[in-house]
Every structure is written in C-alpha cells, then in structure tokens.
Amino acid sequence: MVSNIHTHTHYCDGGKPPRDYVLAAIESKLTSLGFSVHAPVPFDCNWAIPQNRLNEYFEEISNLKAEFKPQIEIYVGAEIDYFPDIVGYTNNLIKSYPFDYFIGSLHFIDKYEDCRRWTIDGPHEEFKKGFSEVFGNDAIMVTRKFFEYSRKMIQDLNPPVIGHLDKLKMQYRPDCFIPEDHPVFKEELLKTLEVISLTECIVEINTRGIYKKRGDTFYPGAWAFHEMSKLGIKVMVNSDAHLPHELVNEFDNAFSALRIAGIKEHYILKGNQFIPVPITN
Ligand SMILES: [Zn+2]
Ligand SMILES: [Zn+2]
Hints:
The chain is of the alpha/beta class. It has helices at 18-27, 54-67, 87-96, 124-133, 139-157, 183-197, 208-211, 223-231, 251-260, and strands spanning 3-4, 32-38, 73-81, 101-105, 108-111, 117-119, 161-162, 202-206, 235-238, 265-270, 273-278. The protein has one domain: TIM Barrel. It has a seven-stranded parallel β-sheet. It has a two-stranded antiparallel sheet with strand order 5-6. It has a two-stranded antiparallel ribbon with strand order 10-11. A hairpin with a 2-residue loop joins strand 10 and strand 11. The relative contact order is 0.14. One zinc ion (ZN) binds at residues 79, 105, 107, 163-164.
C-alpha cells in the first residue's frame, strides 16, 4: 500500500487541476491521495493559495472525495509555512479550516531590511541575494537558523508530518553555501531528528529534489535514514508532485533506501489516520 499526500495543483503552484491527479493516482494504484495546497500567508507570495480561494478548494476536493470514493481515498490538506513571528496567524489558519491533515514546512527564514521575507526555496539567484544581504554569506548561521526554526515549528505547530526536512541543501553549489555532509549541517539535522523522535511527528521522505535534478539525494538524505531508524522515527514517502505524472517519482528508490537502513515500515493516510504499512520492496 502506497500513498502520496504531498501534492500541488493549480490552486497554488502546481500545473493541473485536482481531478488530473486523482486519475493519475488511480492509475498508479495509490491507496490514498492527499492535496496539500500551499496555505495562505499574510504577505505577497506567488506560490500560495489566496485565502479567498480556500472555500473553492475545499469544495472541489470534497466533491472529488465523494465521486471517487469507491476507487481511492482522497484527503484535503495543506502545506503550512512556519514563521516564528506570526505563530498566532498560522495556528488560527489551521484551526479555522477543516483540513484532514497538514504538512509543516519551512520555505522562508528571516527578512530583508525592507521586511520582505527571504525564501530558501526559490531560484538560486534569489537565495544568493538573501544569503548575502541578510546573512552576510554566513552559511553556518543560515544552516543553524533553518534547523532552529524547524525545531521551533515542531514545538509551535505540532505538525502531523514535517515536509522536506533539509531542503535548504538544494541551494548548495561548489562556490556557494555548504553541502549536506558538512559537519554543522549534519549536527543540526541530527539535533532536529532527536527533537522529532520525542513527538508523534512523521518525517516525510521527499523525492522531489532527485527527479527535479536539484541534487542526488532525498530530503532528508539517505545517510540520515540510519539515524532515523535508530531513533525510531516514523517516516512516509511523498513526491511533492506539482504535476500528475510526478506522483510516484523515485518511490521505489526511496523504499529500497529505507529498507537498507533498517526501516521496516512507512506510514500512509488511510481511514482518516496515519497507519504503518510494511516496506516490502
Ligand atoms: Zn514545500
Ligand atoms: Zn510542497
């Protein structure tokens, strides 16, 4: 049994309407499919759904849920950003809408002098701008801050699933930033895994970086799977699909890497709950 609950449609920065993902998920024999629109944020952001479209989003996914019930379980969720300075806004958003689940993810850290927020998830040129202007090109400081915010997010939002735990590494170039095997990067990721191990939070193994060719590792990288295995951390595999044909990209490789690391089960959303399923391949 396999599911994918990290998907983006044309309601945010994905490329197709939700129905196309449902049809592709049935074709791929997924047990369940979750829609995780980028939740609204209280500033200009061209990849998040505007708040005034959320009702339409819920209505469309609810209709698909009913229509395809005999074939596949469909869930309506969101990928929610974390900002330490507006936790009230975010918690209110989570409480105000009937999300079946949400994924907590970090895409921004800190602000420019003019108060615009700096994203670590945009084009490399944009990363370089904030890296220089906000952090004076201090890779260690950025790394520590990114993971510190990830740990704060776990505490403040208590997300059922944490998305692309070390996505920051996609900005590494030989002449910019640090790679995932840098001692500080590893230390911070491990510290974050330890915090996660004390919670019920599921760590997503996100395959998007590989099939988008932003690197050759998952978020988080396979080296961390051994540590996750030791810490007894729950995992689930998602592709962060922005198009229907990306729904199960790199899933087989993710499951083999998990199995090799000694992780025997992954979690899927089924019957409105996250349940463990043996990894068989
Ligand atoms: Zn994301
Ligand atoms: Zn996403």
